[in-house]
Amino acid sequence: MTDESALLLPANAGMGEDGGQESFKEGQVRFKKVDKTLDKITSRKIVEVGSEEHERIWKRFERRVGTREARFKRLIRDLWKRQEDSILAQLRSIERIEGKRDLDPFDMKDWVKRFREAFRPILRKVVDEAGNESLEDLMLIVDFDIAAPAVIRAMEKQTQRFATHINETTWNDLRKTLAEGIDEGEGVDKLKARVKDTFMDYVGLDPAAGEKLSRLEMIARTEAVKASNAGQVEAWRQSGVVKGKAWLSALIPGRTRETHHQAHIQYQETPIGLDENFAVGAGSGPHPGAIGLPEEDINCLCTMTAVVSED
């Protein structure tokens, strides 16, 4: 077997102790040279929409994201409860409500900071898990570097965006409903009820919502998918063996976006480099969940497949 007919595979790529040539090191990752008859393990192949392979990869991603989504839900629910209690205490302290139509629901700067501080450790754990799982999926014996500058930048960007956007929406919703109540001459008790109803609707306790996903569920899912895919891309960069990426759409009949279905077809056939952006709909971004448009990112459950170098 010549070097040209070999692939670099991890040392634990399903081979016995005597199943290949002598191990050697490349950085912190151990590889073995094996015959290309095993190329199905690592060489990229197109994942057809709706195929068994598509279902296998996506179901694994969905399971992983589900546990992370639950963590984000607990975090956001707790933050909203504290925020609600603070707003209610503020309303109780107001002696005269008439004429206060422009009442600020809460201190935006303070609550953005609180959300950032609470979000960071959860996000770090999720990205670290996703990164390590991605390296394990490649069968590489190396730890994901959560402290790498690129990873820190990606997490800080997501943290700031999360804390700012979630509070801006809450602030606007509360400002609107409180102004309506004040215009109608409502007292503090009724205004407090408006605040409680707003947060109740956020967490999905409004019977009128039916099967519609609550704001809590949408945010938690969106953040979990974004963090999971970000960790995956950063792990692939660190691996030294992944050279490209391809979009893999969610498998949810009747709910997968057409733009994401088309992205799957396009990028499975023509993958892009790790540092390139996917063009999806009217937006673009490095991975699913980070295309930059609400209509493409919110509730997205897509992921990616790796293009592994055969050099």
Provide structural commentary.
With 311 residues, the protein is mainly alpha-helical. It has a domain at 65-217. Helix content is 53%, strand content 12%. The chain contains 8 helices and 8 strands. The chain has helices at 39-42, 52-92, 108-137, 149-183, 188-202, 215-239, 258-269, 294-297, and strands at residues 6-10, 24-26, 29-35, 242-248, 272-273, 278-280, 283-285, 303-308. The chain has a 3-stranded antiparallel β-sheet, with no helix packed on it. β6 (278-280) and β7 form a beta hairpin. It is elongated. The protein starts with 5 loop residues before the first strand and ends with a strand.
Gist?
The chain is built from 8 helices and 8 strands; from the N terminus they run βββααααααβαβββαβ.
Q: Classify the secondary structure makeup into a structural class.
A: mainly alpha
**How much helical structure, as a percent, in the residues?**
40-55%
Order of helices and strands: EEEHHHHHHEHEEEHE
Radius of gyration: 24 Å
Parts with pLDDT < 50 across at least 5 consecutive residues: 1-43
Distance between the first and last residues' Cα = 15 Å
Q: Rough shape?
A: elongated
What is the beta-strand fraction? 5-15%
Tell me about the largest β-sheet: 3 strands, antiparallel
Strand order in space, largest sheet: 1-3-2
Total number of beta strands: 8
Alpha plus pi helix count: 8
**Can you give the mean pLDDT?**
85
